[in-house]
Amino acid sequence: MPRSRPLGPPATALPSVYWGVFGLYEPMLAVSGFLGAMADPKKAHDAQAPWPAGGAPDGPLARATQVTMLQLAHVVGLLGLINFFVLGAARKYLFAQPALQEKIVCALLTPLLIADFVHISITWWALGDHRWSIGEWSMLLWITFLTGLSLLIPRVAWHMGVGRYVDRRDGQASRKI
Question: Whole-prediction pTM value?
Answer without folding.
Answer: 0.85
